[in-house]
Amino acid sequence: MANLTVEAIELTRLYGGRAAVSDVTFSLQQGQVLGFLGPNGAGKSTTMKMLTGNLAPSAGSVKICGIDMMEHPKEAKALIGYLPEMRPLYKEFTVDEYLTIAARLHNVAGKHIKKAVEHAKERCGLTHMSKRLIENLSNGYQQRVGIAQAIIHSPMVVILDEPTVGLDPIQIRDIRALIKEIGQAHSVIVSTHILPEVEMVCDHVQIIDKGQLVFNGGIEVLKQQRIGNKLLVGLRNAPEAVQLAAIAGVAEVEPADGLWRIRFHEGTQPHEAIVQAAVQNGWGLYHIAPDQTSLEDVFVQLTYHEAAGTDEAKAA
Amino acid sequence: MLNIARKELKSMFASPMGWIILALLTFSFGTYYLNGVNNYFEVMSGSIRPAERIGVTQFVGQTVYGLASFIMLFAVPLLSMRLISEERRSQTMPFLFSAPLSISEIVVGKFLGLVVFLSILVVYIAAMLFTLNIWADIDFGYIFANSLGLLLLVSSFAALGLYFSSLTAQPIIAGILSFIALFVLMILDRFFAGDPTSTMLKFSLMRHFQSFAGGLMDTADLAYFGLFILTFITLTIRRLDADRLRG
């Protein structure tokens, strides 16, 4: 495949015999945003540490734009911008000083440093904070400095570990927009446990649980699973379930909290027929809406039914 | 590597710590220098035999460099303790690890940063002694040997401090440990003074500094300091590498 920016091949990490991450394989192309999901302690951060060369894998390898992280760590690291879970900020410096240091450490040429710092500040909305000590910034602004630090050398791959933790909703929106923007030209890996966020910014999703990759595929697959083929119908003068089931295309009917959950066959659209039947028979229709399985449910399904999950991963 | 050194220097001057230590040390060296100059004629007029008479450079230099080597024993651990342990504590290590730098570059860079800071003091002391030249003929070689000796001595302190700093996430613990270790190394020659042939004497930092203090540059001493610094830098690199491997 063309333009592979990240390749992780059979990554495994053991901690004293216990596998924190085992046999994780995936790849990422230029211009993709990958969402990395998983419950606490699933191995998200460990995987990210291995991708960025902060931790040596027990087995397997990482390639960034074709450069092996183990063999040529310097060249590979130069292509990555990384924001760890704990923001690596030197609080005794001002924003400008800190970003200048970050630019220098990432081999930004001397004459471009000023421009790079300005650009990073602009993208993260930090221009009015230039001379402030990082120590005195609010949590959200510190997080922005962390992101600015990760994108200052316009790396090919940006890896952000839980970038929206502790931000207010407006800032979260800004950061998401920023991630999308970066994702257009480069590759981004974002770890999170906020599910709607994944839907908003990512076009690829990976779910990891207990060190194993349980789902790996496009966001559409996940969305499809979510929307499914169910309708939630509310009827004031409810008929027998059999009558509902008789409508063409309806596969199954079950009561749900005073409403009816109607599952229909794939490819059919019985919505109209249901409404017509309701009007003709005077059932008193007051609610009809698609029944969405929440992303949380999908997530729970994937992570807690491991056997089923791996099948799905294979299918995807 | 130089970028790391620059960063370290900057962070030393970003807090009052660096300035305060510089100011305090400068003050004490200045006081000793003045005392040395004041006492010179008093002492010299007291010594009748020519053998007892020594030059002003040596007389003042002895006091100042003697004090410097002793005071650095306290000052260097104070400065070196933060180098790595502070990064561990505030979790900034990944910032350096994910930059395109090898671990050796990070460690050597940090070491250089501290040595440059300390050499400000060494240069300052030398400059102070050079002012004697205004009214006396001073022995430049003596000052040069002493400055080199002092620089090597504090670099060794710094290397050891750096290593202890890499062992813990608590700067204070690193500081205390390196102070104790340095103190033991300094006074080894006192412990084993009874047995001049003891090999333990060879490990005493002070003993190797003494020949420089006398204006003598011995390759054996140069090699000792060189090896000492190299050993602790290598240990630090290995220690950080273990972090990456074991997590």
Walk me through the structure.
- The complex is a heterodimer of chains A (316) and B (247).
- With 316 residues, chain A is α/β, with parallel strands linked by helices.
- Chain A folds into two domains: 4-219, 3-Layer(aba) Sandwich (Rossmann fold), CATH 3.40.50; 229-290, Alpha-Beta Plaits (2-Layer Sandwich), CATH 3.30.70.
- Chain A has helices at 44-51, 73-77, 95-105, 113-123, 139-151, 169-185, 195-201, 219-227, 241-245, 271-281, 295-304, 306-315; strands at residues 4-15, 18-29, 33-37, 59-64, 67-68, 80-83, 157-161, 187-192, 204-209, 212-218, 230-235, 250-256, 259-264, 285-290.
- In chain A, the strands form three sheets. A six-stranded mixed beta sheet of chain A has the order 6-7-8-3-9-10, with helices on both faces. Chain A has a four-stranded antiparallel beta sheet with strand order 2-1-4-5.
- In chain A, helix 6 links the parallel strand 7 and strand 8.
- In chain A, helix 3 (95-105) crosses helix 4 and helix 4 (113-123) crosses helix 5 (139-151).
- The radius of gyration of chain A is 24 Å and the shape is elongated.
- Chain A starts with a strand and ends with a helix.
- With 247 residues, chain B is mostly helical.
- Chain B is 79% helix and 0% strand.
- Chain B is globular and about 70 Å long.
- Chain A binds chain B through residues 13, 15, 46, 49, 52-56, 73-75, 77-78, 80, 82, 84, 86-93, 97, 101-102, 104-107, 149, and chain B through 3-4, 6-7, 10-11, 14-15, 90-102, 244-245, 247.
How is this fold's topology laid out?
The complex is a heterodimer of chains A (316) and B (247).
Chain A: E1 4-15, E2 18-29, E3 33-37, H1 44-51, E4 59-64, E5 67-68, H2 73-77, E6 80-83, H3 95-105, H4 113-123, H5 139-151, E7 157-161, H6 169-185, E8 187-192, H7 195-201, E9 204-209, E10 212-218, H8 219-227, E11 230-235, H9 241-245, E12 250-256, E13 259-264, H10 271-281, E14 285-290, H11 295-304, H12 306-315
Parallel strand pairs in A: 3-8, 3-9, 6-7, 7-8
Antiparallel strand pairs in A: 1-2, 1-4, 4-5, 9-10, 11-13, 11-14, 12-13
Helix pairs in contact in A: 3-4, 3-5, 4-5, 11-12
Chain B: H1 2-14, H2 16-46, H3 56-80, H4 82-89, H5 93-97, H6 103-130, H7 140-167, H8 171-191, H9 205-213, H10 219-246
